[in-house]
Structures are given as structure tokens and as C-alpha cells.
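Chain A, query sequence.
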Amino acid sequence: MAKRPQDFLEEARREVPELTVEEVAERRQRGEDFILLDVREKDEVRSGYIEGAISIPRGFLEFQVTSKIPDPDKEIVVYCAGGARSLLAAKALREMGYQRVYSMAGGITRWKESGYPVVRDRQFTPEQLERYSRHFLLNEIGEKGQSKLLDAKVLLVGAGGLGSPAALYLAAAGVGTLGIVDADAVEISNLQRQVLHTTDRVGMPKTESARIAINALNPDVQVRQYPERLTADNVMAIFQDYDIIVDGCDNFPTRYLVNDAAVLLGKPVVHGSIFQFEGQASVFKPHEGPCYRCLFPTPPPPGMVPS
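Chain A, predicted structure.
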């Protein structure tokens, strides 16, 4: 005779031990080493989850659990909304070789009713859920990573051949704040490589042209304009509010100024340089590795390197 849905649930309840929300909370308070596994769907998790829980929707459990929980001897407490899906998920885990698996009776609904806290991450707008949906599919980014990107502040020194593609990709990825430092105006000779700018913006300050292009691509991004030369007088004030500096400048005095200010402020620098068909990209993280000046202690003599 074919099994009814209730038969599967009763079979799981016979095989899987359950813990009350009070038992789970007490064990967490004692600092016991176990994994909380949330098997609800992503839209349910957005409404709140238990801090520290790993999220794997029930439909993806068998495909993703070995990558997220590689140790089959690890103790796991599974929860869902009300306690049914967690029983079925725990049974499946046991069949996969995870033997120390429990289900939290009553799920997160009972957890909340008992007064225990839940965490709510950034609440994405419907447009953001669609815009960044491909990022959400990547374990290395996901919704938490996207939230960090939206909170990040990146400063681009230069909106030219290097700064242009960097700005577009950072904006597309959803970096929430982009600062642009460039004192120049758009020239028609820029347009075969500086893809931020367009013919109808020739003569416009590059920072404003960059803002138009960035916000046309992604209105989530706040663009801060610095239409000025970077100097010893303003560099510290400009740099201090940013998480990462992207150095796409075209001269050595500015390059060394960027390096020295970043070292003093402890800011990572993503550095790029190019000449014709050759280029170099490096990341300099102060106090965790060498800086640009460590690599090149002194600039080349004037006129030795073409611009």
C-alpha cells in the first residue's frame, strides 16, 4: 500500500530524536559544540533565523550538505518553521551517514513564542532580489555577502582607462558607495578606452560623467565626486571614510602618495598600471605584506617611463 504523507512523518519521528527549544537554548548558552541547520526556504529565512545557523533549503539538502558540513560525525540540530520538515531532513541526513542528528520540536515558531532571539539580515527590495539573484546562488557570496557589498565603500583614484571598467564592475556588483577622484574633463581622445564616458559628455568633468554612467547601470550605488587633484593636503581626509582604495592613476607622484596615505590609514590598495599591451595588477594590504614603496622604493627618473 502506498504511504501517506503522515506515514513518512511518523517514520521520521520514530527514527529521529527531538530536542525542545529550551534544551537547544540551554546547550547554546553552555557553549556546546553543535551545528544548527535551518532547512526552511530562503524567503522564510529572511524573516528571521537563529544566530549562527547554517541555511540549506530542504530541497537542496542532499546536494549541498556535504560541502557545508563535511564532517559526518558533527552533531547537528535541524530546525524548520514548525518541526515537520526538520524531522524529514534529519532522517535524510542519518541515511547519508550523519548519525548525531536531532530535530528541534516546534521549529523556529516555538523558539520565537518562547522569547528566544532571532536575527534578521538586510531586507532586500524586490528589485534587489532580482538584480542580485545570481550572486545569491553563489555560496561564496550569497545574501550575506551581497549585504556586505552594499555596505562597502570603495574609492577609485582615476576615472580613466583603468578606473572606468573597475567602476562599472563594482557598480554592477552592488558596491554601495563609490568615490571617484579625478580632476580632468572628458576628451574625445579618451573614448576608445575609457568606457565610463560617452561622446555627448565630452567636456564634462569625469567625476560627473562617471556618476551618470554608474547610476544608469545601478541606482543602488551612491557616487561621491572629488573633481580635484589628489594632494598631500586632501588625501587623508578623502581616504579615511573608505574600506578599499583602487589606484588607477597615471603618474608616479600620485601613486606614491596613494601608497603612503594608505599605509598610514591602514587601507588596502588594489593597484593597476598599464602601458600599451602590458599591465600589472597587485593588492597591497598595509601591515600584512609589502606596500608599493617596498616593491619600488624610488620612482623612475623623469622621462624614463612614457605616459
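Residues 152-295 form a domain with the Rossmann fold fold (CATH 3.40.50.720). The mean pLDDT is 93.
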